[in-house]
Amino acid sequence: MHPGSTTTTINAATAHSEANHPSPGCHQPHDRVQLDLHDLYFGKPDPAALLPLEGDLATEVATRLESLGYPTATSLTEALDTWAGTENFEERLVPGKLDPVILTQLRHQTRA
Questions:
Q1: How many CB atoms neighbour CB 4 within 10 A?
Q2: Does position 5 have pLDDT exceeding 60, yes or no?
Q3: What is the maximum alpha-carbon separation in the chain?
Q4: pTM for the whole structure
Q5: Tens digit of pLDDT for each residue in 75-88?
């Protein structure tokens, strides 16, 4: 060994690594969060909670989709389908209706 050099044991290196660089497992979301995300993306809409996509609600949805760059002049349904596909909400689409979960997500994305 050269004068002034030190040796590091594997145990010391491992302890340093664990203390200063926690495993990726510690950064995983809580199981409840994972289940909520799974339900958000893969859950089916509650038929009793579906909103008719007409009137003021249709106007609001169109305005919000337009602000995100999804033109609705030709078809609100096509714009909503395209946005929902981009956001992975296809499982929550129901023709002529709007899942409140989708509405919440759309409002979240377009809030000022």
A1: 5
A2: no
A3: 83
A4: 0.66
A5: 999 999 999 999 99
The region that residue 29 occupies, defined by phi over 0 for left and psi between -120 and 50 for alpha, beta otherwise, is: beta
DSSP 68: T
Between helix 76-87 and helix 100-110 the angle, nearest 10°, is 80
CA atoms 17, 19, 25, 26: torsion sign: negative
pLDDT per residue as tens digits for the range 45-102: 899 999 999 999 999 999 999 999 999 999 999 999 999 999 999 999 999 999 999 9
Exposed, middle or buried, 37 (CB in 10 Å: 0-12/13-18/19+)? Answer: exposed
- Give the dihedral of Cα atoms 90, 35, 48, 66; nearest 10 deg: -40
- Residue-range domain boundaries for the chain: 11-110
CA atoms within 13 A on the CB side of 70: 22
Task: Return d(Cα 70, Cα 62) in angstroms, integer.
Answer: 9
Tokens 């377009």 -> residue? 110
